[in-house]
Description:
The structure holds two protein chains of two kinds. Chain A is of the alpha/beta class. Chain A has helices at 17-26, 65-69, 84-94, 150-164, 174-177, 189-210, and strands at 5-11, 38-45, 48-55, 74-80, 106-112, 178-180. Helix content of chain B is 35%, strand content 16%. Chain B has 18 helices and 16 strands. The interface between A and B is medium-sized, with 25 and 30 residues. Strand 2 of chain A pairs antiparallel with strand 9 (350-355) of chain B. Chain B: Belongs to the MON1/SAND family. Chain B: Residues 301-401 form the FUZ/MON1/HPS1 second Longin domain.
Amino acid sequence: MKPDGKVVLLGDMNVGKTSLLHRYMERRFQGTVSTVGGAFFLKQWGPHHISLWDTAGREQFHGLGSMYCRGAAAVILTYDVTNLQSIVELEDRFLALTDTANADCIFAVVGNKVDLTDSCALLPEAEDERPSEKPASGCVPTKVKRQVHADDAIALYKKILKYRMLDEKDVPAAEKMCFETSAKTGYMVDHLFETVFDMVVPTILEQKAEGPSQIVDLNNCKTAKNTQRSCCR
Amino acid sequence: MEAEDPGLPPKGGMDLPQDGVDLPEQKISPGSMDTGEDEPSVALDEQVELPGAQNNGPLSVAGGKGDVQEELTETREESSEKDLSDSASTDNTLEDSSEFSRPMVMDGGPPGEEEVAVQPRPPTHRDEDVTAESWRAHRKHIFVLSEAGKPIYSRYGNEEALSSTMGVMMALVSFIQSGDNSIRSIYSDDRKLVFVQQGPLVLVSVSSTLQSEQQLRQELLYVYYQIISMLTQASITRIFERKKNYDLRRLLTGSEKILDRLLNLVESDPCFLLGAVRCLPLQPALRDSLGSLLQKAITPNLVFSILVARSQLVTTVQEKTVIDDCRLEPTDLHLLLNLIGATSAFQTGEIWTPICLPRFNPDCYFYAYISYLDADCTVCLILLSTDKESFYSVSDCKKRIEEGMRTQSYLQALSSGLKSPSYSVAMVGAPDLRHFMYKPLDIPDNYRQLPQFTSPELEGPYCSESERHRLFDLYHYLHSRIHSTARPLRLIYHVAEKETLLAWVTSKFELYTCFSPLVTKAGAINVLTKLLRWIKKEEDRLFIRYPPKYSTTPNPGKGSKGPRTEGAENGFFGGL
Ligand SMILES: Nc1nc2c(ncn2[C@@H]2O[C@H](COP(=O)(O)OP(=O)(O)OP(=O)(O)O)[C@@H](O)[C@H]2O)c(=O)[nH]1
Ligand SMILES: [Mg+2]
């Protein structure tokens, strides 16, 4: 059985892809080891089965990226907000891997490990109370210097559209598709995945409609309850 | 790969003593043993070899009729380990002079001096090293470097900080090479340095353990093969052909843990020493059922199906057309399990990753599907395919296996067996017996089976790491004596400081036993009888006696030309 839609996590090693997925699927943050190859997870989303691929960021497995991306409905490009190189790598190394993804593939740009910089995100599951709040100047001093800012992510998102030759009008707005998360505290993690899944659902429905004698039960579709919330400023 | 070869030592010089005392078990339980003519008897005479004695040269022979070599080291206090180590290295000199290029002595002795430097002397070659004493004190250092002298891996410490040390090593290697020779080992008073060159990689072991040079060499090969399992030999060769001073760490960052874990395992798990696989003790009926489950859940290009529980083999099924040429090697399985253990512990997803089985084919990748079947991540299913696009169909095989296991409650049966540690040596019912390792050499269908071994949990005095290391040192020592290329032994009775050990190899098995120090020789022989009888009784449970039938996938790899032409990128056929 092939799942209905495919979501792939890409990004340099150590940015926290596995941790994000663990936080979302297992509801916890625990020690991880550098991923080998790719790991497949199945997520039930309403009536759909979404396949989630956590890939290895190590250069050793670089050649495999396009295999994991084949037919992807969404790609989550992940970087580490405390590591400038990690977002540079997304453009240099990982973007080309998405050539095998669907033509209408959705892109999300995710800056992880904000807990290291944003004291506000240190609160566990903080996204319920304050979906978007810039760390006030009164916050606890940052532990690590933030190297990547929200603007950088938005700039990357626009570069992606250019690379994919997509019109900004036809795709979700950059502000909506750039996220900052903490797998450690859980900050914005659910929001990220739920937003992406909700956006993948129309693709799945389209595919199912195209498929022979597929009956789609629209009533069972999970509503996009979270998509209105913005995350980036 | 001598250490893996279950072959018996050559028969030369192994005539049975005419007046030897027969082992009692040959009378008591003929069923448990072959009484064929090549069965050695043990001469319990007083012809003993004292390796600790000063003037006993390495060639000391146990008296006129002592053809079955027997060795007795008196119980001593402080000195025993030192003596042991001396005798071990002495033996190695023997091996060297007869087979290898000459060991080099570092302290300015003429190159090619065949003596082993056993006399204490200041380790001058180490004085240049600026690193801390604690770093030097490690039992065993392992270094991997490229031919250009670039550091790739160091077991302890940062490779970068050690680049000058590694540079020196490389200089040594090249210096000897320039004389159309190759450096194999360096002996100092308390360390052995062993060098292995494999293609563009140089591996160095600096060890103060009792292991023989051959064993250290074997370990370095394991390290090399583990690197190959991640990158393939072909791609390493290609990379360094293109760029001589390539920094291989770029491709290995994140993999250090895999090598670290391998080196810890090599020192604590006898599977590497014995070149054999540890099976999960299991009711044969259950094992057979699981085997046929695996055999049925197949898909094109699925070549190996392996079920393990806590790194112990439950059963394995191999695709027919592949097995016509080759069988799964224990080394490949060990490396695979180490990689899985180091990277996927408590992984809930299904892993799909390329992996090379270096002994099977060092140049090609398999695609490994790895998934845990239980919540505790103890039962692991590994399916190896040659088709990198076959994830979903292979994943489907897993669903069928899972389904089969659920309906038959196999998983519960399996995990109930897993709750208790492997098994206790107490089950043998011989109080003097502390531990043993038994590798049968007479398993039915041997040619298509993985070599196997069994051993109980380490208990009692061997719970601490240092004591475990000590025991394994002793086992390594006995193993090196048994498998010595210069003078192989069939039987060793060895009285160590805190225990007595007996190693025995016949055409039917290879056995290492550890007794309490108070055991007498006659007592030890009695225990052996009991142990062999116990193993005979339990062998259906302890080993895979009759392997599952080959699987024949609907569209077997042999017919599919695809992977063959796609070459190294895709499966093993490219290199066959
Ligand atoms: N402080 C903090 N640490 C994190 C966070 N996410 C991940 N980490 C840590 O970063 C390290 C790498 O995390 P992984 O999830 O393994 O990274 P990865 O992207 O999967 O790496 P590869 O599998 O090698 O590609 C781990 O030590 C995590 O504990 C986070 O949100 N905050
Ligand atoms: Mg990962």
